[in-house]
Specification:
The complex is a heterodimer of chains A (101) and B (166). The N and C termini of chain A lie far apart (54 Å). Chain A is built from three helices and no strands. The longest helix of chain A has 31 residues, at 58-88. Chain A has 101 residues and is mainly α. With 166 residues, chain B is mainly α. In chain B, 76% of the residues lie in helices and 0% in strands. The radius of gyration of chain B is 21 Å and the shape is globular. Chain B starts with a helix and ends with a helix. The mean pLDDT of chain B is 84. The chains are: A mainly alpha (101), B mainly alpha (166). Chains A and B meet through helix 1, helix 2 and helix 3 of A and helix 1, helix 2, helix 3, helix 4 and helix 5 of B.
Chain lengths: 101, 166
């Protein structure tokens, strides 16, 4: 309880920014997915930190929903990446520029 | 306090390692490290069940799925071009991220002080308490989550089958 909650907010902001930088900078679609996971994780960290400091359990329940949505998103996204790789033999997002590939 | 600083620095280092690894497998392993450290932070925040769920679902299921796909496709590194956007794209990405970070910082430093709920004290975060809250106040979102997972399962199966026939 000695750590002020602002520090958790700062850590979460830094992790979120690293994830955003990964989405903007990398070309590998799988790494972009990992960066999205990092951003979701930063949001989860905020939920838990505020749940602790406000003495409210709702934040921890919301983390479950975020984790569930993240799992569903990863499953669908990786299936899409596999299908795209089969047709284009590449997961470089700069080469995936056609709606009708 | 010291524990938090150590954990925070290593979490940021693991995230940066994930970002700048050339090899996608190394990125996935750095991400596991980051998730484990965040789980340790959850433990220090009196959220043991969330920490275990984090380890099980993220480090256990999601990263295994990532590693499986990376090795299935043999996509450790992008062929031909380098793995990153080059030149002006990289600087643009860095600039936009700096703007994002600065806006976070300005909100954090000018915001109202968050009242520490010391009066609230330590709440019961056992799995039993969490389950009660989940099934009393959040039953409808829980059911919606189930439908979402079903939709994801059907979507993945459809995506996997249609290419095999074509």
């Amino acid at each position: 309880m000695t750590v002020p909650v602002e520090w958790y907010v700062a850590l979460s902001a830094i992790l979120f920014s690293i994830g955003a930088l990964g989405v903007l900078m990398r070309r590998n679609a799988i790494i972009i997915f990992m960066s999205v996971e990092l951003m979701l994780n930063a949001a989860n960290l905020l939920f838990v930190a505020f749940s602790r400091y406000l003495g409210n359990l709702d934040g921890q329940v919301l983390v479950f929903f975020v984790i569930t949505v993240a799992a569903a998103e990863v499953a669908v996204g990786l299936a899409l990446i596999v299908v795209i790789f089969r047709t284009k033999q590449s997961i470089n997002i700069d080469e995936i520029n056609l709606m009708k590939g | 306090m010291v524990l938090f600083i150590i954990l925070a620095v290593s979490a940021v280092a693991a995230a940066l390692g994930m970002l700048f690894s050339r090899n996608a497998v190394h990125s996935a392993l750095f991400l596991v490290l980051n998730f484990a450290i965040v789980a340790a932070i959850y433990l220090s925040l009196n959220a043991p069940f969330i920490a275990m769920v984090q380890i099980t679902v993220y480090a256990g299921a999601i990263i295994v799925l990532f590693l499986f796909v990376i090795m299935l496709l043999g996509a450790e590194q992008l062929r031909g071009v380098a793995g990153d956007s080059g030149g002006w794209q990289r600087w643009l990405a860095g600039g936009l991220t700096a703007v994002l970070l600065l806006s976070f910082a300005s909100i954090l430093f000018q915001g109202n002080a968050i009242t520490p709920a010391s009066a609230a004290g330590v709440i019961d975060t056992s799995p039993a308490a969490l389950g009660l809250r989940l099934f009393e106040a959040y039953v409808f979102p829980f059911e919606v989550t189930g439908v979402l997972l079903l939709a994801a399962i059907i979507g993945v199966v459809v995506l996997s089958i249609s290419k095999k026939r074509g």
